What does this fold into?
Amino acid sequence: MTNETFIPNQSIVKAFTLLEAFTNDKKEWGVRELANKTGYNKSTTYRILSTLVALNAIQQNENEKYILGSKLFELGNRVSLYESLIYTARDSLKKIATDIEETILFAVLKKNQVFYIDKVESPQGLKISTSIGSFQPLHSTAIGKILLTFSSEEKQERLLQNIDYKAYTPHTITNESQLKNQLKEVYKNGYSLDLEEFELGLICISLPVFNKNNECIGAISASGPSSRFELKKVNHYVSIIKKGIQEIIF
It folds into this structure.
């Protein structure tokens, strides 16, 4: 062991920053626009992209735009940690999305954050920006509050102490005491709400997913615009999600 402070390799950090810019909503980038997006200068962006191209992590399409390459697909196929969760829950997520008519997300706890592993879009057509493989904070999301609530007491305390209580909207919980009080309500009700706490205009409701040992292994949420997601229908939403979760066997 060493007491030396770890300093991340900035070239690798920059490479991953570029890679993370590629999303389901933005699958291709030009050098200039990607430089503008990340804040790196054009020459640095081009140099890193060229290296990633040489490694097959990035490739150029017929329009000379950069897209994710085959190496990432190959590496991604080696990741099996969540495959069984996704496979087992997929049909239920689709059924919930059809019945509730909103976007459904399935997430787990990873790196002290909400990590999204699956998504079914709303049949009503409105798309939620959250994408599979993305992270969101615990304190300002419905799923995050579920994952906190149903963690062990020791784990919950550790998570609470490591949260950066950033205010994303005027409705965001910004301190540990306030969050703890809300977690008590979540435990009592068995579900949590995000009332425009992470994104203005967006309301979410979430319920826990347990395994056969009664351990919370993840959470499922339904998300919709505040103009359509009626709070008076919360019990209806809860019953639909709960029914879908009961059909998932882990």
